Amino acid sequence: MMGKIDYRSRWSKVKKILEEKSADAYVSKIEGNMRYLALSETPYHPASFGIVSYVVIPLKEEPVAITPCLEEFRAKDMLPIKNIKIFGDYPLIPSDGKKKSELLKKVLTDLNVKKVIFDMKENIDGFEIEEYDAIEKMRLQKDKEEIERIKKAVSISDSAYDYLKNRLLIEGEKENDVARKLENYMRKQGIESVSFPAIVASGKNSAYSHHDNSPKKIKNGETVIVDYGACYKGYCSDVTRTFTIGKIPKKLKEIYNIVLEANKKAICAARIGAEYKEIDEAARKVINESGYGRYFVHSTGHGIGLEVHESPRIAPTSEGKVSLGEVFTIEPGIYLPGIGGVRIEDMVYIGEDGTEVITKAEKKKI
Q1: Residues 339, 337: Cα–Cα separation, whole Å
Q2: pLDDT at 165
Q3: Is the pLDDT score of 49 beyond 60?
Q4: How far apart are the first and last CA of the chain?
Q5: Staple 33 to which of 74, 79, 135, 302, CB 3.0 to 4.6 Å?
């Protein structure tokens, strides 16, 4: 049985940072960070973000959540934070202040705060302010409960692979119909939401690294890129597979196998202590040496967890090294205008026993 998120442990880590920086309170207003501190099990979609406007972690007191009046009752039911302050200007609705910025200032004043750390730029008269995103750094290292949720989300997206391959991706099916049926299938497996709208790009459309689904019908002789993900108890998966419909041209077969090799090389390079840019280079080298470097137009990967895109970024210019507990994608691609494209994406977990490829959906040389 899946355990509960230990929010109090997260708050304690923030308080230690406050001690180190001689600060009185930490204020979060970045959506992913607020979910980490108070709403990790809410679905990953915009409707959840409005529940809280600020999360305040004081050095010596209990956390405070600042919430709009229209979300008052949902916040009181869902938040682990019990000190909830409400803002709004409706005459018959009790509130602690009319505007969220004014209420935040009042909360900090009542807590006798002098120095505040924010996770993004904010100006409030009367306080010493430092911008430092401590939560983003904490979110890099996933704990046991987070990994369980991520693996469950991945298992659901993995289960959709066979459904895609055997029942959906056939000649005559429309891209937008495949996307709709795929998302409905995953919802029936118990997810709260999809991580993002599924992308189904067939034929020449697969030459776009990101494509808006269309009524175009899938045809024999095409590659079809399907990029999709599930959200389970607040945590995301992200997988891409490139399917071949019937017999495909030699050029598409060639780039498929190159991308697969690049994917495998990058996974081998993903280990504790490796520089993020080294992992990107492992994938990019395969594609560059094959003569297709011009057509690998994005980074090799990105972190994933509460959000489908979070730190770290696996790219040529990325700074930093891989550490224990990180989860990120490996997703090289080649996109040939007017011909088609290939992307193969897996999620990896950097665990105590080494690098684990969480994604189990089939991928093989063609």
Answers
A1: 5
A2: 92
A3: no
A4: 40
A5: 135
The Cα–Cα gap between 33 and 54 comes to 10
Helix (H, G, I), strand (E, B) or coil at 143: coil
- pLDDT beyond 70 at 279: yes
Helix/strand/coil percent split, the chain, to 5: 35, 25, 40
SS3 321: strand
Three-class secondary structure of residue 295 per DSSP: helix
Taking alpha carbons only, the member of 135, 259, 242, 154 closest to residue 199 is: 242
**Residue with token string 């094959």:** 290
C-alpha span between 143 and 200 (Å, rounded): 33
Yes or no: say if 210 and 230 are a contact pair by the CB < 8 Å rule.
no
- Separation of alpha carbons 85 and 107, rounded Å: 8
Taking residue 136's Cβ as centre, other Cβ atoms within 10 Å add up to 17
Q: What is the pLDDT of residues 135-173, one digit of tens each?
A: 998 999 999 999 999 999 999 999 999 999 999 999 999
pLDDT digits (tens, 9 = 90+) for 80-93: 999 999 999 998 99
Domains detected in the chain:
7-138 (3.40.350.10), 144-357 (3.90.230.10)
**pTM (predicted TM-score):** 0.94
CA separation for the pair 137, 36 (Å, rounded): 12
Type of residue found at 309:
H
β-strand pairing of 115-118 with 128-131: parallel
